[in-house]
Structures are given as structure tokens and as C-alpha cells.
Amino acid sequence: QVQLVESGGGLVQAGGSLRLSCVVSGSIFGINAMGWYRRAPGKERELVASVSSRGRTMYGDPVKGRSTISRDFAKNTVDVQMNSLNAEDTGLYYCNIESTWGTYWGQGTQVTVSS
């Protein structure tokens, strides 16, 4: 059974940083991309960052330039480092895998940025 377990969320002051980590357990065939999405209160889910199987990275416009995604193939993890956080970064952050077998989501980790 595939599980995606997120960690690293919490309460942080505006201007601070967080590193979100996702550990993937179980076997997944044909991973195309791993990444992070978020859902802010009252808003649609949006891309934070993703990295393809070939190492191509993509970032959502709101976090571009202040976030870095990284993937560790040996540990089967995908992390995102987020800096210069602001109140608009508050939301529930989800780990995501797109694969040949389908799409997988974690349960989410809450990030709250206080001003």
C-alpha cells in the first residue's frame, strides 16, 4: 500500500522559513513527477512545486523565487524549502505523486504564517 507522509508544517512568523518533507512508502510504478500542492482557505488547490522524473522543476507563481524543491531517490522523499513566508502562504500543504498507476496524495500538513 502506498503512503505519502508529510511533515514540517507548523506556525511560523512572516518572513520566516519552513521545510516540508514527504516520505513515500510502498511501491509505485512509473513515477512521472513528485511535488507539493496547497489549498488556502477559500481558494482552489494550487501547485507549490514539482519535480519530474527527469529532474525538471516547476513552481507556482506565488512561490517562485523563494522556494526550492528537492527529491532524494535513495530515501524516496521529496522536500520543499520555502523562504520569506507571508500570510498568503497559509494553507494545507499536500504531497503529490503522478505516476503511470495514478495520482497519490498525502493527508496534508498545515502551514500557518502569522503576521
Give a short summary of the structure:
The protein is mainly β. The protein contains no helices and eleven strands.
Describe this structure in words.
This protein has 115 residues and is mainly beta. The chain contains no helices and eleven strands. The protein has strands at 3-7, 10-13, 18-25, 31-39, 45-52, 57-59, 67-72, 77-82, 91-99, 102-105, 109-114. The strands form two sheets. Strands 2, 4, 5, 6, 9, 10 and 11 form a seven-stranded mixed β-sheet that branches. Strands 1-3-8-7 form a four-stranded antiparallel β-sheet, with no helix packed on it. It is globular. The termini are far apart.
Topology:
Elements: E1 3-7, E2 10-13, E3 18-25, E4 31-39, E5 45-52, E6 57-59, E7 67-72, E8 77-82, E9 91-99, E10 102-105, E11 109-114
Parallel strand pairs: 2-11
Antiparallel strand pairs: 1-3, 3-8, 4-5, 4-9, 5-6, 7-8, 9-10, 9-11
Compute the average pLDDT: 95
The Cα radius of gyration reads: 13 Å
Shape: globular
- Can you summarize the main beta sheet? 7 strands, mixed
Quote the distance from N terminus to C terminus: 40 Å
Uncertain runs: none
For the secondary structure, the number of strands is 11
Structural class comes to mainly beta
- How many alpha or pi helices? 0
**What percentage of residues falls in helices of 4 or more residues?**
under 10%
Work out the strand percent. Answer: over 45%
Question: What string, H for helix and E for strand, traces the elements in order?
Answer: EEEEEEEEEEE
